[in-house]
Amino acid sequence: MDQIAAIKAFQTVVTAGGFSAAAKVLQVSHTVVSRQVTQLEALLGTQLLNRTTRRFALTEAGQTYHEYSTRILEQLEEAALAVTRHQVQPVGVLRINAPMSFGLQELAQWLPAFIAAYPKVSVDLVCNDRFVDLIEEGFDVGLRLAYALPDSTLVTKSLASCEEWWVASPAYLKAHGTPLVPADLARHNCLVYSLAQKSSQPSFTGPDGRPHTVAIAGSLQANSGIALRAAALSGTGIAASPVFLVHEDVKRGDLVRVLADFEQQPLTLHVQYPQNRHLSPKVRAFVDFAANQYREPRW
C-alpha cells in the first residue's frame, strides 16, 4: 500500500465531501478511493469514517487523524518546495509598490540590477505616498518606510534603519543662523512633510537623555520628500528628511546637517508581501535581492 496516496485519498474524501467527489478530484475510480481508505484504516487498526449509502462522518479517531495528516501533507509539500525552489526560475510580472521619494531616489538605484539578474521577470513599479492595500490592489510586494506598521496579515521583513536628518542650505544658515537646540527651530522657516504624524511638533532626545518637543511652522508643507528636499536646496528653509534622500547632498556640501546631537526615532525600511504557503519564486527573488542590498545601506 502507498501510505501517502492513501492519506491523500482520505483527506480528499473529507475535503471534497464524499467518495465520489474525491474520486473525481483525484481522477480515479470510486473503488480505488474506497480501497485506499479501507487499507489505511486496516493499517491504523481503527475506523476513520462512519459510512452510509449517502453520507459519511468522521469518527473521533478520524477527526484526530485528519488534523495530524493535514499538517503532514503540508510539510511534505513545503519540503518539496524547499528542495526545488532554487531550481525554479523566477518568471512573470512582478508588481511592486513603494513610497514616491524612496522609489525614485533609492529603489531606482538598484532595481535595474534586479531586472538584469532575472531577465524573465518584468517589473510593474507603482510609486505613491498614500496607503496602499497590497492584496486589494493586486501587488506582489511592497516596500514601506515607517516608524511602525499597523498589524496586518502581510508577511513583513525589516531591511534597514533610516534616520531623519534636519538639513538646510549653507545660504539659508548664513542668512538665518544655525539652530543649536530643537527649541531654535521655532524661530526658523521649517519645511513640513504633511503625511508624517505630529510633523509640526517633532520630538528629540538630547545628548543628556532629556526629551525635547518643539512646535514648528513654515512657508511650505508638502506630501513629497523630494519637493521638500528641492526647497531646502534652494535655501527656502530647514527640512527633516530621510537620510537616503539627502546624504549625497550633505556629502557634497549642498546641504548642511543641523541638530546632529539630538536623536529622533528612526524610520525602518520594510518589505511586505501577502502571506502564501508557497512563496512565488519572483517574490522570493525580489525579497532576497532587497535584503542583500540593505545589509549595508548606502546611507
Can you summarize this structure?
The protein is built from nine helices and 14 strands. The protein is about 40% helix and about 20% strand.
Overview of this protein structure:
- The model has no long low-confidence stretch (mean pLDDT 92).
- The protein has helices at residues 3-16, 19-26, 30-44, 60-84, 100-117, 170-176, 225-233, 243-252, 281-293; strands at 49-51, 56-58, 92-98, 121-127, 141-146, 155-162, 164-168, 190-193, 203-205, 211-213, 220-222, 238-242, 256-258, 267-273.
- It folds into 3 domains: 3-86, Winged helix-like DNA-binding domain superfamily/Winged helix DNA-binding domain (Arc Repressor Mutant, subunit A, Orthogonal Bundle); 90-162 and 267-293, D-Maltodextrin-Binding Protein, domain 2 (3-Layer(aba) Sandwich); 164-258, D-Maltodextrin-Binding Protein, domain 2, CATH 3.40.190.
- The strands form 4 sheets. Strands 4-3-5-14-6 form a 5-stranded mixed beta sheet, covered by helices on one side. Strands 11-8-12-7-13 form a 5-stranded mixed beta sheet. A two-stranded antiparallel ribbon has the order 1-2.
- The protein is 40% helix and 22% strand.
- The longest helix has 25 residues, at 60-84.
- Helix 1 crosses helix 4 (60-84).
- It is built from 9 helices and 14 strands.
- It is of the alpha/beta class and 299 residues long.
